[in-house]
Amino acid sequence: MTKEQMNELADIVARKVVNELEEKQKQWDQELNDNVSDFFTQDNTHDVKFLSEEEFIENQIKELQQLLERTIEKEDYEYASKINAKIAQLKEKLK
């Protein structure tokens, strides 16, 4: 097989692969659209709650405080210091 024939074969294979992927992507897009449509047209019992910036920061602080406790238990005081500084920075934002 010559180099030209190998390149021709490679082009054919590449086109087939791309075509298959495009078809699969269309299928996935349709499934996503159907799922989103179902979500909004069904008896919408799903509550979506958006957090305020203050609530978001408070949640971050709680998570960091838990991480801080675990870090101190592991005696990783250098990392604990960084976490503590981040907590202080977030608390300043709440003021």
Give the gist of this structure.
Helices cover 82% and strands 0% of the residues. With 95 residues, it is an all-alpha fold.
Fold blueprint:
Blueprint: H1 3-41, H2 53-73, H3 77-94
Helix pairs in contact: 2-3
What does this molecule look like?
The chain folds into 2 domains: 1-45; 53-94. It has helices spanning 3-41, 53-73, 77-94. The protein has 95 residues and is mainly α. The model has no long low-confidence stretch (mean pLDDT 89). The protein has 3 helices and no strands. The chain is 82% helix and 0% strand. The protein is flat.
Essential attributes:
2 domains; single chain; 95 residues; mainly alpha; flat; 82% helix; 3 helices
> What portion of residues is helical?
over 70%
Q: Give me the count of strands.
A: 0
Poorly predicted regions: none
Distance between the termini: 75 Å
Q: Which structural category do the helix and sheet elements fall into?
A: mainly alpha
